[in-house]
Amino acid sequence: MLNVSTQELATPSPVDVDQAEAALVEHYPRLVRIAYLVLPPALGRNRRVLTAHSVVQRSLPRRRTSGDDGGMPGQRRPEDAVDAGYAYVRVRVLRQALEAGLPLKRKAWPKRAQLPPLLPQVWGLRLFPRAGGADELALDQRLSALSGPARAAYVLRGLERQGDAEVRRVLAAAGVEDPEAALAEADGVEALYGLLESPEFDPCSLQARPTDLMRRRQHGKAALAALAAAVVCGALLGLPGDGWGPDGAAAPSYARNPVSEAALDPGNLRRVAPAAWQRSARTDFSVWPARGGLVDDRALLRRALAVWARPGATVQASATPGTPPGPPMGPPQLLFAGEVDQARVVLFHDGLRAVRYAEPKDGTEGAALDFARTDGADTASALALVVGRTHANARYLTAPWVREVSARDLLQPLTAARPVERDAHGVTGALLSPVAPSECRAWDVLEVRDGTTTRTLTDLGELAPARLTSGPPSAPADLAGAGVTARAEWARTACLLPMVRSQGVRSVNSWRFAEQELPHAAGTAAWLCTRADTWRGTGGTVLAQFQAPPARAGAVVAKAEESPACGTREPRVLAGGLWQAPGGQLYMLAAGSPGVASVTVSGGVRGGVDDDRLLEVKLPGKPGKQVELTGRLEDGTEIASLR
Question: Which DSSP state fits 238?
Answer without folding.
Answer: G
